[in-house]
Amino acid sequence: MPATSASFRRARALLGTFVEIDVADAQGADLESAVEAAFSAVAEVHRLMSFHDPDSDVSRLNSAASSCAVTVHPWTYTVLQAALEMAQSSDGDFDVGVAGIPQPAADSSSRTAAAIELLAGHQVRFRHAGLRIDLGGIAKGFAVDCAIDALRRCGVRSAMVNAGGDLATFGGGARIVHIRDPRSPGRLLCQVEVSNGALASSARRFDPFRSAETTETSVLDPSTRRPAERVLGATVRASTCMVADALTKIVMVGGERAAAQLARFQASAMLVAADGNILTTSDWQGDLQHAA
Amino acid sequence: MNDWLKWTAPAAAVMSVAAPAYAMQYMSVEEAQKAAFPGASFAEVQPGRVWKASNGGYFYYDHVVGKHLLIDYTVAIGPDGRVRRVEILNYRESYGGEVHDPNWLGQFVGKGSQNELRINSDIRNISGATLSSTHLTEGVKKVLTYHASHFR
Q1: Is-same-fold flag (A1-51+136-164; A174-288)?
Q2: What is the pTM of this model?
């Protein structure tokens, strides 16, 4: 069905959340098929990196990579490379390991990263029997980047992809994004403008289908194996959504000490600390007035 | 290295504003039908809920409604009984009790996606805590179960 309107927005349930794609202004391109290609890319990331799907790359790694090298899709390999870089640069505050990691040692930096071997030919091996990984802290951002790439390839000149608050946009000037108040997600804390870049947030869990209240965050502090307590919510702006997504976890776990990692990736951030203070990096660009 | 700036007012004193009725409309039922089965015609099997497509497929319109969230969605099922396509037609989040008000419930049904929303139309994009879509997945399973027992 060729689109007649100059812009439209579609939504699907993918990656365990709602993925919205908003497109405008395709140069001779069919917007409907461009959006379909973008959703297909997101669905492919979901298929490859789901922790629960027994046929995903992640499940195949978790069941076999400690006994032999497992070949994964290039996308999975790319995400693993980024995850290990994040783990190393944050001294283990970012950690894709969910089980089988040796207990904290004196050298506590990036234990999971040291236990994952990335080999030639997109092969991956685990050095520890029982190591289990979950790419949930970074794959959603990667999926958004893949959707953006698909839209660009189809000739779309302006779009936004928003996967449950992890979003990226290009073309068409600035778009306003409202940030939920992590203490009360039915309310809005502030608004920011995003153009040609990405923004991601992490906070306590929230399901308006069941309640207006939040439950504890799904971000675990690798050093305690307990939900992160230092920060109630974090929003990170970066050039790609994968980087922004992963950095939100580092800010949730590390709080103010995440500044070095943010600077390394030329990212900026806002956080709501458990003590009620709102902090931003000095290069944060956003309207920190309450939403009008 | 970045320095952190503390926002002058403590968060407790910062006025966050209520988003009483954040809503987004994506597609009409007719648009979803055409996208699922291009070129097919549709015969109503159950008024406003189930259609049979001329290619042998079926098309369901349903909603999931919770405490503060209502989602209208459609499920296209191919002649082979497998899900062809699931579309979210609209998404309505509300904290003022409107979700269970029949007028609010029905305000978008049957409208084209070109219709402008009148409520909170300035809120187009939200970031924050990630929302679960589990309830929608459960809704699709419910539709499939219904389909298997009635039309297979």
Answers
A1: yes
A2: 0.91
Considering only CA atoms, which of A290, A285, A276 is closest in space to residue A231? A276
The β-bridge relationship of strands B126-127 and A175-181 is: parallel
User: Residue B77 pLDDT more than 50?
Assistant: yes
pLDDT top residue among B101 and A149: A149
Provide the phi-psi class of A171: left if phi over 0, else alpha when psi is between -120 and 50, else beta: left
**Series of mean pLDDT values for 10-residue runs along chain A (292 residues):** 66 95 81 95 97 96 96 98 94 85 52 90 93 94 98 94 96 91 85 94 83 79 83 96 97 94 96 90 73 34
Task: Report the interhelical angle of A139-153 vs A31-49 (nearest 10°).
Answer: 150
The CATH superfamily holding the domain A1-51+136-164 is: ApbE-like domains (3.10.520.10)
Q: Kindly report the CATH number that applies to the domain delimited by A174-288.
A: 3.10.520.10
Residues 93..132 of B with a Cβ closer than 8 Å to A: which?
A: 93, 95, 113-114, 122-132
pLDDT at position B115: 41
- From A116, A76, A69, A120, select the one nearest A92 (Cα to Cα): A116
- How high is the ipTM of this complex? 0.85
The confidence band for B55, taking pLDDT boundaries of 50, 70 and 90, is very high
Q: How far apart are CA A175 and CA A48, in angstroms?
A: 31
Q: Which residues of A touch B129 (CB under 8 A)?
A: 165, 180, 182, 185, 201-206, 214, 233
A interface test, pick of B86, B130, B138 with most A CB neighbours within 10 Å = B130
Chain B hits for A181, Cβ within 8 Å: 16, 128
The amino acid that residue A193 corresponds to is: E
In chain A, domain spans: 1-51+136-164, 57-133, 174-288
A6's torsion region: left (phi>0), alpha (psi -120 to 50) or beta? alpha
Residue with tokens 């009008």: A292
